[in-house]
Amino acid sequence: MLTDTDFPGGNAIIEVLAEDEIEVRPDLRDTIGSWFYWYFRVRECADRRLRVRIVGDPTPIAARGPAVSLDEGRTWHWLGTSSVRDGSFLFDVPHGCPEVRFSVGMPYTAADLELFLTRYEGQGGLERRQLTRSEAGRSVQLLRFGRTDGGAHARVLLTCRHHSCEMMASHVLEGAMEHVLGSDDPAARWLREHVEFAAVPFVDLDGVEAGDQGKNRAPHDHGRDYGPTEGIYASVRAIRDLLRESSRPPFDVVLDLHCPNITPRPTNERIYFVGSPDAENWALVQRLADELERGATGPLPYRSSNNLPFGTAWNVAKNYVSRDERAAPQQSIGWFLDDEPGAGLHAILEFPYATAEGAEVNVSSARDFGGDLIRALERYLRTRMASSRGTGPEPTSEG
After folding, report:
1. Would you say the pTM of this structure is higher than 0.70?
2. Distances in Å between the alpha carbon of 59 and those of 5, 54, 248?
3. pLDDT band, residue 189 (cuts 50/70/90)
4. Domain 2-103 sits in CATH 2.60.40.3120
5. Among 181, 240, 247, 286, which residue is least crowded by beta carbons within 10 Å?
């Protein structure tokens, strides 16, 4: 039996306790405090019963137990909470299975994005560009799609993986992109005709590939690199330049996709927008939220009443600065945009790892939610564009 993390996204400190018994804890590396991401594989284990113990405080296992893959990470399923007791679970490896992978969630790395982009190459105006080079020399991609010939009536920026471990948000982004690129429904056709999309799928690409926690990285993480001084991460500096590009109109919408903690509390098991201290911006976010609630057709529930206004729960000022007291003050992309002249709607969307108000979050349901989100954007943008012309709301894709 061989147990390791020597592959993209792998993370764990592993101790083999007995022939078929493994103890695993998250590798925190340069993380300030504790976090919960882990992902490892076991090879040469066919026909064996594995006993795995996941160690942490609290135990870092999501609401539906560990995620399991029997095909080198191409597909995943939840093992289920009934299989877990005191942080331990048993798994019977099928006959002939060359390896099994376990993770806190359903991982998404650069190889997954490449597979997706290969399927949609040349569709929906898809263009790949290099946004910048990461600190490790990797090419950080900027994807453009929709109306990219300069004739767009609106611009949307989608960002993901400011915190490298938050992999379920990537499945949402892929579902959103898939709808614009490949769907023939009226909403997708309208978006391709009127809206220029830009997406940064991996803000912390190095962290994604290295299997870092990313969240609370010392001295601060990518999500807190939008402070008054120049950022320490090349991708964040490039995003700030993109947002301030003087030769182009400002983005009408900027959505930053995240995942919350996995501890069992209400704010970690529902989908919600995070409130801005800018009252005008928060009013725009609530309009988008209303469109999402009214038009969602996928299996995951979304309720605008679940949104987290600024000043409530964790959404307070002190959460948006570096946790390293020696570091210069830092802030999130949302706070950065609050101070940018001409900034349109901007918001963080939190998407849970395993369950949303009792419904199962998985690759398929996350992608479906991405479609719901993009259709809500279409209705929001139609209404805004019609209002700016003084003509009243246009018929939506459902009208």
Report:
1. yes
2. 20, 7, 48
3. very high
4. yes
5. 247
